[in-house]
Write a structure and sequence with these properties.
With about 375 residues, the protein is mainly beta. It is about 10% helix and about 40% strand. The protein has one domain (about 10-380): TolB, C-terminal domain (Neuraminidase, 6 Propeller). A hairpin with a 2-residue loop joins strand 22 and strand 23 (about 335). Keywords: Signal.
Length: about 375
């Protein structure tokens, strides 16, 4: 499920899969409703190991860009925002709180949206900004289940997405479709956990209309569980990527843990899965044919921790020593933390030359969290 982090060694990978299966099965057994999602966490994400940067040109030429900036969240104005170029979570470590900030599409300024604080806090766990920059999608725990909700950026109003599932299924995570009218929904289903019978699980991916709840099946994967899910559509909407694991493939001597999986949203495209690989956070798509992933087979401190995944099935490792957290693509530019080479909190990484440049500079005690671009406005 979304929210796990890189494990150190095969044993921990296998334990993680087992924990996910047991935990998810227990949740399903306790739910009377079948709408659910990843548990929210108020903790900043941990720093990840060194990563590489691709040796390929960036995309998004001509798209609207977000220029480099130095900002202090304490001085940012708070005002209503109709449309945002991107949303970001910042962590104020001294105050111990999460801050939701956006770039106003009308002015290009960084501001704090004037929405109720509980809404800002819930959305800020993992901002998922719509491609048109006008709303967020979130999953919220309610008693014994999780509801999928769309939050209006301007008003902070919340409306439920009518996702209806059988009692043996629970929503794991969601992603915006390019039209901002549909969601890709990754669901985990399981047979009851009744001793002595071992439960079996499967993954279902559906595309759901936000307004009506009408849905169509994208795929059904037997003997599977969503792990490091972080789902996303390709920019053209023809492909859907997410993280998955196959517990029965794992043995004491096997290093199979998580895989990145890409499937066609309307058929007619070969499905590909890369074992021991999962997507980076943020927008992993360099273009409609290539996405960026973590490579679990590489040394977590080495120069080949990442790979470019082609939708034709190939996988190209590359090296860029010094990067730590990578936050995906913003308007075609790769954004990440490059301590020692770039003094800013977040820097852009040129995918051709490996040159780095400051992009977001923050005061001491403020850390960057998740970045979510409005694809339709920024391109990429």
């Amino acid at each position: 499920m979304t929210g796990t982090r890189r494990a150190a060694g095969p044993a921990r990978r296998l334990l993680l899969v087992a924990a996910v299966v047991v935990g998810a099965t227990a949740l399903l057994s306790s739910c009377t409703s079948a709408v659910g999602g990843p548990a929210a966490t108020s903790e900043p994400r941990p720093h990840r190991s060194r990563a590489a940067a691709p040796r390929a040109p960036a995309t998004g030429d001509g798209a609207r860009q977000v220029p480099a900036v130095s900002l202090d969240p304490a001085t940012l104005p708070t005002r209503p925002v109709e449309q945002a170029l991107l949303a970001a979570t910042l962590f104020d470590t001294e105050a111990g709180r999460r801050l939701l900030v956006v770039v106003d599409a009308a002015t290009g300024e960084w501001v704090r949206p004037d929405v109720p604080e509980p809404v800002a806090q819930s959305v800020g766990v993992l901002p998922l900004l719509a491609p048109d920059g006008r709303s967020f999608v979130q999953t919220t725990w309610v008693t014994d289940h999780v509801e999928v909700e769309v939050v209006d950026l301007r008003t902070g109003s919340v409306r439920k997405v009518p996702v209806v599932l059988p009692d043996d299924c629970v929503v794991d995570s969601v992603a915006w479709a390019p039209d901002a009218q549909h969601l890709g929904v990754v669901t985990y289903c399981s047979t009851p956990n009744e001793y002595p019978t071992e439960p079996t699980g499967w993954v279902v991916v559906e595309e759901v209309a936000i307004g009506t709840g009408a849905f169509r099946l994208v795929e059904h994967v037997s003997d599977a569980v969503p792990v490091e899910t972080y789902p996303s559509y390709s920019p053209d909407g023809k492909l859907f990527a997410y993280g998955i694991a196959h517990p029965s493939d794992s043995t004491d001597d096997d290093e199979v843990w998580a895989s990145a999986r890409v499937v066609g949203t309307r058929g007619g495209v070969d499905t590909h899965e890369w074992s021991m690989t999962h997507m980076v956070y943020g927008d992993p798509w360099r273009d409609a044919q290539t996405l960026l992933g973590w490579d679990e087979n590489a040394s977590v401190t080495g120069p080949d921790s990442h790979a470019l995944l082609s939708v034709t099935g190939s996988k190209e490792q590359y090296g860029f020593d010094g990067a730590t957290n990578l936050d995906g693509f913003v308007g075609g530019a790769l954004v990440g933390e490059v301590p020692g080479l770039c003094p800013a909190a977040l820097c852009t990484i040129d995918l051709d030359t490996h040159a780095v440049a400051p992009w977001l500079t923050l005061p001491d005690g403020v850390l960057p969290g998740s970045i979510s671009p409005a694809r339709a406005l920024l391109g990429g």
